[in-house]
Amino acid sequence: MGNNGERLEVPETAGRMTAAASAFVGALTAEQRKQACYPFGEERRSWSFLPARDRDGLPIGALDEGQRRLGHELIVTGTSMPAYTKVVSVMAMEHVLRALSPGTAKDLFNPERYCFKVFGTPGERAWGWQFAGHHVSLNFTVADGRHVSPTPCLLGSQPASFGLLAPLADDEELGFRLVNSLDATQRRAAIIHHRSPPDLAARMVPRLGGTERPDPVFAPEPDYVLSDDERDILSYVRSSPKGIPGSSLSRVQFDSLTELVGGFARRLPDEVAGVQLHELERMGMDNLTFAWAGGTSPGERHYYRVQGPTLLIEHDNTQGNGNHIHSAWRNPVDDFGDDVLAAHYREHHA
To answer: How far apart are CA 326 and CA 136, in angstroms?
Structure first.
């Protein structure tokens, strides 16, 4: 981002985040601050969307009503309103999951366990924050009061839908619409394997490497196992994307791909989404590739990926026999603000 100058600046969002994070931290007790506040270092690369009885950070359940309101106001600075409704719907699904779970498994699912972390001091030249819990991981890095890096960004849902709650139904629908619009030749290019990985191919690595292979198995479902060959087929390879390039799609199909990518970008506030999409368009949306694995009908285990030099979208619905979604957006060069911070250090620490 350093070379892109003013084109990637989002000063309004950066200002809102700084004000909201300052207000939130300022309202905490000294003891709460110890839980919530971290140095601006490698700790911010620790991200997980797994359920956990204990999680680092300051849990929502430890906040009083006023603090909780300020915490939610911070979340809103990092999301569009539609995405904010997704976040609170994912959290609400914890109530459903707890009611559906047997015995001690109930203890894993609790909407009061989502945690805040603030890295560094809001308003400093470089600082960041995270909001994370089961099926939510929002990570933001703010530099020089005008740049915001918004990845990794993950939302999930278990079950995929229940009653009125279906937080990620649009991501599902757009993927199915695109894969099922392909003709036989296009499908041969796009569908890289008849089985989907048990989880995201890139997993939760703190930095995306040149190659990332999916885990062979999701531990709670030991009967669904990938061979080493399958892991290679399904792997993310930064230098040679798998699937069908946007340039091989018809106009209608290309519009579907653009809409799918736009849906992920529009998880963010308008200012940030606009900058992200403008940068993808500048680099050429027709250079993005779309890959699919698994079944192509709703209710079947499936996975899709959209890949470009600065983009990795992964969406899997494999666990629970195709009723458990993980939907992630990462940037191979700017996760946790790597590119933003490189520009900052070039400018200020030459």
So the answer is: 9
